[in-house]
Design goal:
mainly beta, Porin family protein, 8-stranded antiparallel beta barrel, 2 helices, signal, about 210 residues, Beta-barrel_OMP_2
Length: about 210
């Protein structure tokens, strides 16, 4: 009798555990970012010397994701991402002629998305924390302040929202990422430099579900 009870309890635990794990999937993903930098240069003391550029930076993105749930789901991710943008810098000795300088940086992004799936289609949104890995800034831009090279913050915060489609083990996602905090800021009173930057991007990825 006791053996039957133990066997029944073990069977129930196995079924319950199998059900839980059936709701969890893990995969890898990779793709491209199309990013821009938004600045408040025009409203600050650097004035006409620096202007925002509409050029986009194309960078790579890749990492892993977990999905917990089926119809309603939570999806945390760990993503390595190359981002950046461009600024228009007034050429030395000119009052009207600008040159484009590029800013590149990489970050480790941790999105936490909440989503809903209907058929093969998904929609999802949530916060993302970005941790700086490296950055590259033009020497011409560094001439404005010795602080610019160290201006990128160790962490910044934003949001992601988008949609995707699952086709068997493959998935395709398109997302927009916006900033809730500055990714960089400079205050240099000795040179009357004071400005901040935010980043935004469109991201397209292809994923593969391992289990």
């Amino acid at each position: 009798m006791h053996k039957k009870i133990i066997l029944l309890v073990a069977l129930l635990i196995f079924v319950k555990t199998s059900s839980v794990f059936a709701q969890i999937s893990f995969g890898i993903k990779g793709g491209v970012n199309f990013s821009q930098l938004k600045t408040d240069f025009e409203s600050q003391s650097v004035g006409a010397n620096l202007k925002q550029s509409l050029d986009t930076k194309t960078g790579y993105v890749g990492g892993v994701y977990f999905r917990l749930g089926k119809t309603f789901f939570v999806q945390p991710e760990l993503i390595f991402s190359a981002k950046g943008g461009s600024l228009n810098l007034l050429k030395s000795g000119s009052s009207t002629d600008y040159e484009t300088v590029k800013i590149d940086y990489t970050s480790l992004d941790v999105p936490l998305l909440i989503g809903y799936k209907f058929g093969p289609l998904r929609v999802n949104a949530g916060p993302v924390a970005s941790f700086k890995v490296s950055n590259s800034i033009s020497d011409d831009l560094k001439n404005y302040s010795s602080n610019i090279g160290d201006s990128f913050k160790n962490a910044s915060y934003g949001y992601q929202a988008g949609a995707g489609i699952d086709l068997g083990s493959l998935s395709v996602d398109l997302r927009y990422e916006g900033s809730l905090s500055d990714i960089s800021s400079v205050v240099d009173l000795s040179k009357s430099v004071n400005y901040s930057q935010k980043g935004n991007l469109w991201q397209m990825t292809l994923g593969y579900k391992i289990f």
